[in-house]
From TrEMBL:
Its cofactor is Cu cation. This is Cytochrome c oxidase subunit 2. Belongs to the cytochrome c oxidase subunit 2 family. Gene3D superfamilies: 1.10.287.90, Cupredoxins - blue copper proteins.
Amino acid sequence: MNMLKKILIVLAAMTMPSLAMAQTANPAPAPVTKEIAAPVVATPAAAVPETAAPAASAEAAAPKSMDGSLPGYTPMKPTEGIGMPKPKEIDFQEQFSENGQYAKWINNSILLPIITVISLFVLGLLLWVIIRFNRRANPVPSKTTHNTFIEIVWTLVPVLILLGIAYPSLDLLAKQFKPAPADAVTIKVTGYQWYWGYSYPDHGGFEVVSNMLKEKGDVAPGERFRTENDGPGQLAVDNRMVVPAGVPLRIQTTAADVIHAFAVPSLWFKLDAVPGRLNEKSLTITKPGVYFGQCSELCGARHGFMPIAVEALPPEKFAAWVKAQGGQMPGEAAAAAASPAPAAAATPAAAATTPSAAPAAAVTK
Ligand SMILES: [Cu+2]
């Protein structure tokens, strides 16, 4: 009896830790999500000490408003179905960058027709074999093993098809790797758990902190919530990444904690944001508008709640937004630096900023 008790106790002791682990392993994510959800979305600065500085500076520069407007800037109302997914859509979203339009053309005008023709051809061959050459219809099968002509055809035709696909594919790949021109506008995108920061080194270095907007029923009284002007639920954000349209952009991505990915389908843009690294890709948005995207690298509990909203504005409106954020356009910076400062200090600043003045001029033509 005593022995049995001892064995039971030992068994219980052995299973206990595994039970405890099993319990923590499974239900843990739920409470973690709930605990983190509230503070992170409401005030990222308070919840994540590291980011206190950029959040604070962004708030200082941008007085709070219920619709995200600033003096001289009102957020653009997104167009239904543009820059966002549509219900029952199976195609790529409408594209607003040259690479995107090219890629969509490759898909719709080259790949899809080839895939369709090949599938129908193979289906036809299968049906022909099933009907014409089954045992009843063809009791004495042919003993043919080689046919030089057919063998040449079924080698050459696939080679030609692959070459036909390879040419535009490699061309697109090369275009996607093309670095931004020297006068491109730089925007540095930083992924945080779980929101985005956009800093503007060419415009005074301010950072905009961008959080998903909550629904009306989910916010405290007086707190900002999503409206139709902000965009669709789960995609609308409080502060958008505002950029000039028609101007080459140099988008750099990095992350402060874990790997995120900055992805906007309607701009044909996706780039990993990796801690300790700076990735870079060029982008020119062809038309003013609001384009939505999402973090595309599983980055933790609130990965699905860190959407991206890019607002492309005509250059003069972009300049007004920069001013509203407390930044300055590159030309202004050079002028300001040149007048009061001694020559030694002014020269590098002017040299660094002058090229960036060009795109604004280039767009007006
Ligand atoms: Cu993420």
